[in-house]
Amino acid sequence: MFYTGGLPFHFTRKPNYHNSYAYAATHNIPGYVPSGYNVLRTTLLRKERANVERLLKPIKGSWLANGVSIVSDGWSNPQRWPLINIMAASDEGPMFIKAIYGSSEYPKIFWTPCIVPTLNLALKNICAAKNTEKNEVTYEECSWITRIADDASFIRVFIINHSMREDDVGKAQKVKDLILSDHWWDVVNYIIEFTTPNYDMLRESDINRPCLHLMYEMWDSMIENVKAVIYRHEGLEANEQSSFFNVVYDIFIDQWTKNTTPLRYLAHSLNPKYYSIKWLSENLNRLPPHQDHEISIERSKSLKQYFEDENELRIVKVEFATFLGRWFPSPGALTNR
């Protein structure tokens, strides 16, 4: 059946496959005829679709009350046709909607890279800096992290693989010295401490709920938290310069610049949280999105992409300004969004 009918081998991992054969082997069903080609394509398919729709009804029912985000990603089928998978993400969980053949141009669909690979690349550039001519400054400031990581790897490999041979005495002494070194552990703790904001953002981003509207603040706060750890460790004041933090900052900004899109700024601008007095008062340097020059420019770019007609764009800008003045600053805007 698998060879003559072309069934995929992973079909054998399905519980229904095993259950059907187990049932057939232990039960005698006189006159039973397996479902035919036409029945599978029509009647049974309609019944299964109705069953799936019934199971998904609670998820769809929550969209009107709690909201839903439409997300997409690129894919390809066995024939290498470019496909766009459309999914709905909400608090109840993600749900596949449909796949669209993506060889045509869709001027209203914009690609937004996932934030998780961006964070991973930034962390890799800091903790595993390459010793190249173009990367000389970064390697000089960050190579000590690589050495600590190599020491940790050496300890792990020694503990797992050594067999108490005499030629392991030298390695054992090195492992002992490292494990008993307070300075070495202080450095390890420092690395964990200043990379924790990055990992915290990774965890908050890699979830099954909308977070596009939070990316700008999360990235900005993550950098500020990293700076606080480094400056505290180096005993610096906020107005002083740290060569190590400058390198780390440049890496984060470089990754953000390469992978961000105007849509993230638009999403940030449409979140009532960032207009609230509570959020603004938490940090004197914070500005509401409509007063931030960078955010305003990128928001305008995003609106122009969505509304190419000048009259439509003008109406949208007026509506945004009207809603901004009336509702966004109000205390109930965040809870009623």
TrEMBL record:
- Spell out the SUPFAM superfamilies in the cross-references: Ribonuclease H-like (SSF53098)
| Organism annotation | Lithocarpus litseifolius
Alphabetized PANTHER family for the sequence: OS06G0658400 PROTEIN (PTHR32166:SF81), OSJNBA0013A04.12 PROTEIN (PTHR32166)
Question: DUF659 domain: which residues?
Answer: 38-104
Q: Which InterPro entries match?
A: DUF659, RNaseH-like_sf
* Highest rank taxon of the organism: Eukaryota
Q: What is this protein's record name?
A: DUF659 domain-containing protein
